[in-house]
Amino acid sequence: MSTIVKEVVIPSNHRMNLDIEVPADVPPGEAVVTVTIKTKTTEGRRKNRLGELYGLGKGEIWVSDDFDAPLEDFKEYM
Description:
The protein has one helix spanning 50-53. By secondary structure, the chain is mostly loops. 5% of the residues lie in helices and 0% in strands. The mean pLDDT is 80.
């Protein structure tokens, strides 16, 4: 028995056609094909969608209360 692993992205309508290349050592004729769906976890994989990036740095960055206050060095330009 041969095992074929193919990573796919499930479309929003949850319908897809699988195009699988069967290894040459599998003889032609009738066969049973089993599809197992495992969802990927986000741990350890690169974030590649904007939705997965929002909130990534929450609590990591802060801005001081006087951030927009004029700087003494630039008073002559104001």
